Amino acid sequence: MSEKNFPLSSEKLRAFAEKHGTPFHIYDGIAIEDRAKSMLDAFSWSAGFINYFAVKALPNINILRLLYRAGFGADCSSLAELYLAKEAGIPSEKIMFSSNDTSDDEFREAIRMGVILNLDDESYIDDVLRLNGELPETISFRYNPGRDRTGNAIIGNPVEAKYGVTHAQLANCYKRAKELGVKRFFLHTMVASNELNEDYIVETARMLFSLVDEIYQETGIRISQLDLGGGIGIPYRPEDNGISFYSLSEKIRKLYEEMIDKKGLGPVRISFECGRAITGPFGYLVSKVQHVEHKYRDYIGLDACMADLMRPGMYGAYHHITVSGKEHAEANHVYDVTGSLCENNDKFAIQRALPEIERGDLLIIHDTGAHGHSMGFNYNGRLRHAEYMILEDGIYKIRRDESYEDYIRTMLKEPEKA
Ligand SMILES: *Cc1c(COP(=O)(O)O)cnc(C)c1O
C-alpha cells in the first residue's frame, strides 16, 4: 500500500493557486532530497556508488542541482540534456551519456565535454574514432540480453528493442576498446521500466555480475563499474507497493559477495540511472475544474491537458487523483477526467470513482515527478505550464508558463528563401 498525500493543506493550496494560477506541477524538494540520500545510504557498501539521475525524467536545472548536491550525477541522451546537466554544475565524470542512434554532433560535443560515453552499438567505436582519432580513457557499453531476459510492457521485449550490444558482440567490443587504449571499462544495461518486483532488478545485477566474470575469462579485461540502468518502479496505484532501496541493496550485496568478491573480480562499483524512483512520487499536477459536463458519461474538464502530462493518454498509465479538501469524502461519483485537446485520448482518468466534483475544485494528479512535464508537447497550440519546488523555507518557482511568444519563436512570419 502507498498513501497518496499532498504536502500542502487545502487552504494553503487554494491560496497559492489563486495567487499564481493553475495548472502547475509542484515538486516536494525536501522529499526528493531525502529519497536521493536514502538510495546513496542503502548502497554505501559499494565504494563510490552513484545514481546518474535520468535527466529525461525531470529535466529542470534546479532539480538536477539539488540532486547533484545530494550526491547524484546525471544520465543524458541528447545534447540539450548534457547542457542542462552542465548548467546544474555537474562535473563531467558524473555524467553518463547513454545515447542511441547518436549523431556525429552529439558524439563530438560529448567527447569535448569529457562525459562518460555509454556506447549503444559496436559500430559506435568507429564513429568515435572517426570523429576523435582515439577513444577516451573510460568507455561503457550498453548490453542487450536478448532472449536471456523478458522485458516488461513499457520497455518491451529485449529481442525487439533497438538498444544495446548483443551477447555475441560484447567481448569483442571490450577487446577492441582495449586495443585502442581504453583504460577503464564500464558495463551498462537497461531492461526494465517501472518495475515493482525487486527480484527482477536483483536478476539484472546477477546477469551483470556473471558478465563481469565471462568478460574477464574471455578477454582478461576487468570491468570496473556496472550500471544497472533505471527502471525501478513506483506505486502509482494506492494498492501497489514500492521498492525499498535497502532491501534491494541487501540482496544485491549478497550476490556481489558471492559472484564478484569471492571470485576476486572486484572491486566493481555499482551504479544506477534511476529517474522515476527518485522524483516520480514527489511531483503533483495541480489543475482546476473548468467544467462539469453530463453527456453519455460525466466529464470533468480541467485546465490542464496532455501537454502537461502525457502518460495516461499515451499508454493508459494510471495516475491517482484526489480532490483538494475532499480527501475524506466518499468516492461515489464516476467521471472521465479530461483535458482540452481535440483528441479523445486527452484524459487523465477514465471512469474513475471520485467524490462529487464542482467547478472550481482543485484536482491533484499524483506521481507526476518523473516523465510528467518533460514529456509534454505543444499539439493544438497548448502550452506547458509552470513548475514549483517546495523547500524548507518556502515554495520556489523553477519554470514559468510557456507563452505564445515561446510557441512561435521558431516560426518565420514570412517565408525566407532557402
Ligand atoms: C529512461 C531511462 C532511464 C530512466 O528510467 P526510469 O524509469 O526513469 O528510472 C535510465 N537509463 C536509460 C538509458 C533510459 O533510457
TrEMBL record:
Pathway given for this chain reads: Amino-acid biosynthesis; L-lysine biosynthesis via DAP pathway; L-lysine from DL-2,6-diaminopimelate: step 1/1
The record's section on InterPro entries has:
Ala_racemase/Decarboxylase_C, DAP_deCOOHase_LysA, De-COase2_CS, De-COase2_N, De-COase2_pyr-phos_BS, Orn/DAP/Arg_de-COase, PLP-binding_barrel
Report the cofactors: pyridoxal 5'-phosphate
GO biological process terms held by the UniProt record: lysine biosynthetic process via diaminopimelate
Which ranges carry the Orn/DAP/Arg decarboxylase 2 N-terminal domain? 32-279
Instruction: Spell out the catalytic residues.
Output: 342 (proton donor)
Carrying N6-(pyridoxal phosphate)lysine, the residues are 56
Query: What keywords were assigned to this record?
Result: Amino-acid biosynthesis, Decarboxylase, Lyase, Lysine biosynthesis, Pyridoxal phosphate
Enzyme Commission code(s) on record: 4.1.1.20
Q: Which domain of life is it from?
A: Bacteria
This protein is called Diaminopimelate decarboxylase
Reactions this protein catalyses = meso-2,6-diaminopimelate + H(+) = L-lysine + CO2
Q: In which organism is this protein found?
A: Candidatus Ornithospirochaeta stercoripullorum
Extract the PROSITE patterns matched here: ODR_DC_2_1, ODR_DC_2_2
Q: What are this entry's molecular-function GO terms?
A: diaminopimelate decarboxylase activity
For this protein, the record's Pfam families field holds: Orn_Arg_deC_N
